[in-house]
Every structure is written in structure tokens, then in C-alpha cells.
């Protein structure tokens, strides 16, 4: 599903990625690990086509996404679900509206919104919080909103950038349980984390990065 | 309600003072634009009245047969330089005389219809053609004499009136265009600033929408809709205010100008005029809103590195 082929990227004198290559197959759950600044987020941003590599190819479903036009970038992103460390929920919209936005973005007809939002909020355990605003939710609940928004569009791939980074262990465990459940349903998940406990507990493939190079894959 | 309309309305509700200032400036612009349009219409009507009022009177020989009068009347009617041809019989001339001298009935009693010549009155489509038309009419066999109201009332004064009206009409147009353009530019800039501020406050939201796959159109639509809402509200408030003002002043204006229709006397014509102004203003308002919003959005949208 995802292929990185001799990809390099530098920001000024800093080598964020140094000639890395790896492949992630459909249905896999992969951890991107490594210290801060090792290149985890750069990889996720490249898959999202938020940044371009200086050299090399990034393939998503056999399409070189470095070659696609700016006009097609939104349609690439619509096939992915993203979960961020800082949640990135829309603060002036309710929980259900935050999820609806993802459906609106992907042009899902409005008559399907209610049932799909209800289903996904039930899945992440936020059915009773649907009408609340983000300011009325805890960190774990905000991350569930982010996850619900990623899931509602039924993406092929879920990118999670430190989704447990701002959460306590118990809440992080809850999020991980959800991600495991989603992965078992056939979704590919790429999760950047440096949470040792989670990595050991989950026992999934690890791509470890250090200073822009892959040290374990 | 569409998610875009809802987003636009929510944004307006969140910053009511920005919304009020945008609508107020736009309403002021379109209020002035409506008033200027009416003034241009009125000055044109006034000018047209003075330019086309009956100016030439062809006094006919007393023994002229009715058939000959009809022939000349038809000939004048078909002449493209001439309009509003009207036959005034001896009797009608006496009636006009009596009316003019009604303060002194004795004067009317002393005269009979036979002393008044019958005449053909008409106006020219352009004052410049008057001299040429007079010469042509003078050569007609049944015409005794040709009078030009400018001669009767003073050629200089009539031309002066028309020239003065032309100058006034010109200044109203130029002044109006300049004034409305300045206000229009102010509205445009206010809209640009407000939409830019909106983009700035929505920066985080736009970033999120970008990352979850929103197309630029999806991101732009509510922001452009917000500008369009301000514009439409501004047009309607400005236009309605000037309509109410005109309806309130119409009786006084019509009574002051008498037979000159400086504003349409018929309700249908009146509302057709205002409807046309509304249509044009809506088009201009939308143009201002779309241009302002698109420029603001284009400047603010983050681009993929």
C-alpha cells in the first residue's frame, strides 16, 4: 500500500530523512518509532503529501504521490484518516459537527451523515457527548473525536501522529484498543510514537528511525 | 441548511461588530448609489423636457383648407427631425388666450376666434436642428409665419436653460460616479480587511480542513458566502432606505415640478425604475463581494510546500 523508495529530505542543513526505503502492506499496523526529530512526522507528512521529498519516490496504492498535481492532493487525503497528537478538532463545532465535517469534505450525501456519525461515535464511545463542544471534553475524549473523524470516511489508511502523546496511560490504552479494533477490521494503520509501553504491549511491526535513517524495520 | 451557509452564518454571529461595520459601509454605498441613480434619471427627465417641449409654431394662412393642413401635418409628422406635432385651431387658440387672460375677462370679450391664426406646433428632436427646420417650414405655401419659442421667450434664455441643465446633469453624473466609486472602493477594502481577519482567525480550522482533504473550493465557499451575505444585506438596506425616502418625498417633488416627470408618476414605472436599480446594485454588490473575498482568501490560504 505504501512504498518509500530511496527517499531523502532535508530542511536546510538538517537531514530529516536520509535515503530511506520501506514498504507497508494493506492491513498492517506499523509503529514509526524513534526519538524526537528522527523523521517520524516527516514520513507521515510525506504520505499526506504535505511535504515533498528532495529525492526518491513515495507510492500510495502504486501511485507516485510526489508526481500528483496540487489539485489532486485533497482527493489523496480523502482516502486517509488522520489522528494528531494535539487532536486538531474544530473548537467552535460540536462533537457530531466535527465528524460531519469529514463527511462534507468527502462529498458524502447529507442523508447519510446522521447514521454514519451515530455509528462512529458509538464505536469510539462518544455517543452521549455528540452535542458537546470540544472545550467540554477531556483529552482522551478529544482524541476519540479525532479518531471518529478519521474513521467516519471509511479510509483505507489511518495515519496517527503520537495519538497518545498527550494522554495518561489508561486513556492511551483505551485509544490503542480502539486502533487495534479498527486494524482488525482491515484498515492499515501507521502510528508514530515513542511510547515504549504501548510499543511493547501492542507487538506490531516497528520501523525505528534515528537521525533520518531506518535502524530497524 | 448547507454546511457552508451554516459556517458563514456562525462566523457572522461570532463577530457581530465586524458584520455590522461591513453591512453599514455597504448599505451607505448603495444608499448613495440609489440616490445618485435617481438624480441622474431626474436630471435626464428635466433636460429631455426642456429639449423637447413644443418650440416651433407655424402660423397658417387664414384661408388655408383643412386638407392642406392635414397634408402639412402629415409631412411634419414623418420628418425625423420633428416630433409631437399638434394642430391648434382658431377656436383652441382663443381658448388658450382666454385662459391666459382669465384675470382680465374684458380682454377676452374683445376678441373673436377669427383674429387668431390656426397653427401647427411641434418640437425638434435636437435644438441644433431648429434653424434648419424653421427655414424648411417657412417655405411651405400655407405657412404665414414661423415662431420659435426661443424668439418669443428669448432665444438666449431657452438655450441657456438647456445648456445649464446639461451642465448640471453632467456634474451630477460625474460627481455621482466619483462619489459612488470612492464609497464602492471603501466597501471593497472594508470587506477585504474583514475577510482577511476572518481568514486569520480561521487559520487553525483551515489547516485542519486542508489536512483532512478539503478542496480549496470547500474552504473558500463559506468565506465567500459571508462576503456575499454582507453585500446582499448592504444592497437591500441601502436600496430600501432610499426607496422609502423617495416614496416619502415623491408627492412634494411631483407637485414642485408639475408636469415634468422627474420621477415616474405611474407606480409601475416607479417600481420598474427601482427594480432596475436594485438589479444593477445586486450585480455590483456580488462583484464587490466575490472580488474582495477571493482576493482575501487567495492571499491567506496556505500553500503546500
Outline:
Chain A is α/β, with parallel strands linked by helices and 217 residues long. Chain A contains seven helices and ten strands.
Overall number of domains of chain B:
2
Proportion in helices of chain A: 25-40%
Number of helices of chain B: 11
Order of helices and strands of chain B: HHEHEHHEHEHHHHH
Q: Give the helix/strand class of chain B.
A: alpha+beta
Strand order of the largest sheet of chain A: 6-7-8-3-9-10
Q: What's the end-to-end separation of chain B, in Å?
A: 35 Å
- Report the mean per-residue pLDDT of chain A as an integer: 90
Uncertain parts of chain A: none
Structural class of chain A: alpha/beta
Share of helical residues of chain B: over 70%
Number of strands of chain B: 4
Largest interface: A-B, 27 and 19 residues
- Give the total of beta strands of chain A: 10
Backbone CA Rg of chain A: 17 Å
The quaternary organization reads as: heterodimer
Whole-angstrom Rg of chain B: 30 Å
Give a description of the structure:
The complex is a heterodimer of chains A (217) and B (305). Chain A has 217 residues and is α/β, with parallel strands linked by helices. Chain A has a domain at 91-153. Chain A contains 7 helices and 10 strands. A 6-stranded mixed β-sheet of chain A has the order 6-7-8-3-9-10, with helices on both faces. A 4-stranded antiparallel β-sheet of chain A has the order 2-1-4-5, with helices on one face. In chain A, helix 6 (169-184) links the parallel strand 7 and strand 8 (188-192). Chain A is globular, with a radius of gyration of 17 Å. Chain A starts with a strand and ends with a strand. Chain B is an alpha+beta fold and 305 residues long. Chain B has helices at residues 3-14, 16-52, 66-78, 90-100, 105-109, 130-138, 149-153, 155-201, 203-211, 216-257, 267-300, and strands spanning 56-60, 82-88, 119-124, 143-148. Chain B is elongated. The model of chain B is unreliable at 151-155 (pLDDT under 50). In chain B, helix 1 (3-14) packs across helix 10 (216-257), helix 8 runs parallel beside helix 11 (267-300) and helix 10 (216-257) packs antiparallel against helix 11 (267-300). Chain B has a 4-stranded antiparallel β-sheet. Chain B has 2 domains: 3-50 and 159-300, no CATH class; 53-154, Alpha-Beta Plaits (2-Layer Sandwich), CATH 3.30.70. Chain B starts with a helix and ends in a 5-residue tail after the last helix. Chain A binds chain B through residues 48-52, 70, 73-80, 82, 88-92, 100-102, 104-106, 149, and chain B through 3, 10, 14, 204-205, 207-216, 218, 303-305.
Amino acid at each position: 500500500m505504501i512504498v518509500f523508495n530511496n527517499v531523502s529530505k532535508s530542511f536546510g542543513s538538517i537531514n530529516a530523512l536520509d535515503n530511506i526505503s520501506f514498504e507497508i502492506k494493506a492491513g498492517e499496523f506499523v509503529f514509526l518509532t524513534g526519538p524526537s526529530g528522527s523523521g517520524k512526522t516527516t514520513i507521515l507528512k510525506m504520505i499526506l503529501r504535505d511535504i515533498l521529498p528532495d529525492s526518491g519516490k513515495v507510492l500510495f496504492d502504486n501511485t507516485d504521490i510526489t508526481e500528483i498535481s496540487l489539485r489532486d492532493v485533497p482527493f489523496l487525503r480523502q482516502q486517509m484518516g488522520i489522528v494528531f497528537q494535539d487532536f486538531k478538532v474544530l473548537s467552535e463545532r460540536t462533537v457530531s459537527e466535527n465528524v460531519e465535517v469529514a463527511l462534507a469534505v468527502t462529498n458524502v450525501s447529507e442523508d447519510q451523515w446522521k447514521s454514519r456519525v451515530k455509528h462512529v461515535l458509538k464505536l469510539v464511545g462518544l455517543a452521549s457527548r455528540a452535542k458537546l463542544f470540544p472545550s467540554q471534553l477531556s483529552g482522551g475524549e478529544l482524541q476519540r473525536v479525532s479518531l471518529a473523524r478519521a474513521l467516519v470516511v471509511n479510509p483505507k489508511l489511518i495515519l496517527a501522529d503520537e495519538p497518545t502523546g498527550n494522554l495518561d496511560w489508561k486513556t492511551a490504552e483505551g485509544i490503542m484498543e480502539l486502533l487495534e479494533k479498527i486494524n482488525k477490521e482491515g484498515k492499515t494503520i501507521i502510528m508514530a510514537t515513542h511510547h515504549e509501553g504501548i510499543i511493547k504491549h501492542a507487538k506490531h511491526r516497528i520501523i525505528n528511525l534515528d537521525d533520518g535513517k531506518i535502524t530497524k524495520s | 441548511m448547507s454546511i457552508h451557509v451554516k459556517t458563514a452564518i456562525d462566523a457572522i454571529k461570532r463577530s457581530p461588530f465586524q458584520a455590522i461595520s461591513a453591512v453599514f459601509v455597504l448599505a451607505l454605498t448603495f444608499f448613495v448609489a440609489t440616490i445618485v441613480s435617481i438624480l441622474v434619471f431626474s436630471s435626464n427627465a428635466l433636460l429631455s423636457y426642456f429639449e423637447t417641449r413644443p418650440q416651433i409654431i407655424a402660423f397658417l394662412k387664414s384661408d388655408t383648407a383643412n386638407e392642406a393642413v392635414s397634408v402639412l401635418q402629415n409631412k411634419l409628422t414623418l420628418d425625423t427631425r420633428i416630433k409631437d406635432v399638434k394642430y391648434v385651431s382658431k377656436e383652441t387658440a382663443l381658448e388658450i388666450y382666454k385662459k391666459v387672460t382669465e384675470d382680465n375677462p374684458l380682454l377676452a370679450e374683445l376678441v373673436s376666434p377669427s383674429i387668431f391664426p390656426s397653427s401647427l406646433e411641434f418640437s425638434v428632436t435636437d435644438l441644433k436642428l431648429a434653424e434648419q427646420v424653421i427655414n424648411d417650414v417657412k417655405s411651405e405655401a400655407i405657412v404665414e409665419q414661423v415662431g420659435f419659442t426661443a424668439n418669443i421667450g428669448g432665444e438666449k434664455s431657452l438655450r441657456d436653460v438647456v445648456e445649464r441643465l446639461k451642465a448640471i446633469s453632467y456634474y451630477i453624473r460625474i460627481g455621482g460616479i466619483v462619489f459612488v466609486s470612492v464609497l464602492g472602493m471603501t466597501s471593497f477594502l472594508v470587506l477585504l480587511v474583514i475577510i482577511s481577519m476572518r481568514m486569520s482567525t480561521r487559520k487553525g480550522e483551515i489547516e485542519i480542513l486542508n489536512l483532512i482533504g478539503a478542496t480549496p473550493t470547500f474552504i473558500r465557499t463559506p468565506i465567500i458566502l459571508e462576503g456575499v451575505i454582507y453585500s446582499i444585506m448592504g444592497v437591500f438596506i441601502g436600496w430600501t432606505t432610499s426607496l422609502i425616502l423617495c416614496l416619502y418625498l415623491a408627492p412634494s417633488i411631483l407637485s414642485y415640478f408639475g408636469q415634468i416627470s422627474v420621477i415616474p408618476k405611474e407606480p409601475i414605472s416607479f417600481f420598474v425604475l427601482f427594480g432596475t436599480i436594485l438589479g444593477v446594485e445586486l450585480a455590483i454588490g456580488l462583484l464587490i463581494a466575490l472580488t474582495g473575498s477571493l482576493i482575501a482568501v487567495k492571499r491567506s490560504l496556505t500553500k503546500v510546500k
